[in-house]
Amino acid sequence: MKGLLQRAAEARVVIAGETVGAIGPGLLVLVGVEPMDTQAQADKLLHKLLNYRVFADSEGRMNRSLKDTGGGLLLVSQFTLAADTRSGMRPSFSSAAPPDLARALFDYLLERARAEHGQVQSGRFGADMQVHLVNDGPVTFQLQV
Q: Which member of 19, 39, 80, 142 is catalytic?
């Protein structure tokens, strides 16, 4: 399971002109699911997302986590993160989880995130989404569990 974490000043997801999820300061995370991923990996990814220290402390150092700041978490499913791009000029998606598994694990991650962190929003699995981001820093990390 992969998560592309981006520290956001603000972020939102729009589908057909309607905003379906939005946060102020916090994290936008694009989530990619691979065929061998499990709920245990989703739990591990969520732990990292909530505790990864990417927010500045009083001295300007990245020493505070989302849990520390109470910021928003916007989760967006993105199967293209699981693409194999090692060869050729076109990505292969054979390394992405089948849609049923990916949806189940993304929904599980979303449910667990809402249970553990108050401010959680999401895109819509499988939808054509426009993701708007004001990346703070910019700060972007790829997490893989």
A: 80
Backbone angle region of 70, left / alpha / beta, with phi > 0 → left and psi within -120 to 50 → alpha:
left
Catalytic residue among 41, 79, 106, 121: 79
| Neighbour-count burial of 135, counting CB atoms closer than 10 A to its CB (0-12 exposed, 13-18 middle, 19+ buried) | middle
pLDDT in tens, 123-135: 999 999 999 999 9
Catalytic status, residue 79: yes
Token digits for 93? 């998606």
Give the torsion through C-alpha atoms of 107, 51, 66, 97, to 10 deg. Answer: -30
Tens of pLDDT, residue by residue over 13-33, are 999 999 999 999 999 999 999
Asked whether the predicted pLDDT for residue 39 surpasses 90, the reply is: yes
Is-catalytic flag, 78? yes
Question: E strands of the chain, at which residues?
Answer: 2-15, 18-23, 26-32, 55-56, 62-64, 72-77, 120-122, 130-144
How far is it, in rounded angstroms, from Cα 13 to Cα 136?
17
Instruction: Catalogue all structural domains in the chain, each as residue range(s) with its CATH number.
Output: 2-144 (3.50.80.10)
- Catalytic-residue membership of 38: no
- Is the pTM for the entire model greater than 0.70? yes
